[in-house]
Amino acid sequence: MENAGKEDMPDTAERKGLGTPATRAGILEKLASTGFLERKKSKKTVQLMPSRDARSLITVLPEQLQSPLLTAEWEYRLGEIERGELSPEEFLAGIYTMLRELAATYQVVKGTEYLFSPPREAVGRCPRCGGEVTESQKGFFCQSETCRFAIWKDSKWWSAKKKQPTKAVVAALLKDGRARLTGCYSEKTGKTYDADVLLEDTGEYVNFKLDFGQRKGGS
């Protein structure tokens, strides 16, 4: 991301990347959780690849919005605002004008109904912000733009027990804060066991712990 679009940007561009070092990790995480970015592991390296929906989005977006030159221009304008050479109102007015022109001249791409994946069904409500949590290939993610709540399917906690969070388990965790797991693998004994898994979200990290207490009703 640091050098994204570098070849297409003018030398006078203040920044030759997307975001800042402090925000790039969050941007990548959000792209992954919303299904626009896929992580492909190969030995000790991880490649970040655009998903099918990401490629479809590029297909239907106006060319002007795809170009890194637009990012470079906005970076320059923001610099002018910082130096007091341009007012925020003028900057926003330019964006409004561009959007009106794009809306008036945009030609709908035929066949877009086949480009994107169907809408995901909500599994439950996010314990942090109340937004919808949906399932994707990599896990279960909150769909609110500013929220980073996620339950990953390939996390070490679940892998150690040779289990993977299912839609039913996650739905119970989101609703009741606990769900029943059966057939969990014990690394110490090599045997399997049953227990309740408890969801403990700190607001920054999603944690799990096991409860072996007696369930209500003797079950």
Question: Layout of helices and strands, plus pairs?
Answer:
Elements: H1 24-33, E1 37-42, E2 45-50, H2 52-60, H3 63-66, H4 68-82, H5 88-105, E3 122-125, E4 132-135, E5 139-142, E6 150-152, H6 156-160, H7 167-176, E7 178-185, E8 192-201, E9 206-211
Antiparallel strand pairs: 1-2, 3-4, 4-5, 5-6, 7-8, 8-9
EC number: 5.99.1.2
Region (Disordered): 1-24
Keywords: Isomerase
Task: Give a structural overview.
The chain has 219 residues and is of the alpha+beta class. It has two domains: 6-114, Topoisomerase I, domain 2 (Orthogonal Bundle), CATH 1.10.460.10; 122-218, no CATH class. Helices cover 32% and strands 23% of the residues. Strands 3-4-5-6 form a four-stranded antiparallel β-sheet, with helices on one face. The chain has a three-stranded antiparallel β-sheet with strand order 7-8-9. The chain is elongated, with a radius of gyration of 23 Å. Mean pLDDT is 83; it is low at 215-219.
CATH architecture of the largest domain: Orthogonal Bundle
Strand proportion, as a percent range, falls in 15-25%
CATH topology descriptor of the largest domain: Topoisomerase I, domain 2
Number of strands: 9
Region (Disordered): 1-24
Protein name: DNA topoisomerase 3
Biased composition (Basic and acidic residues): 1-17
EC number: 5.99.1.2
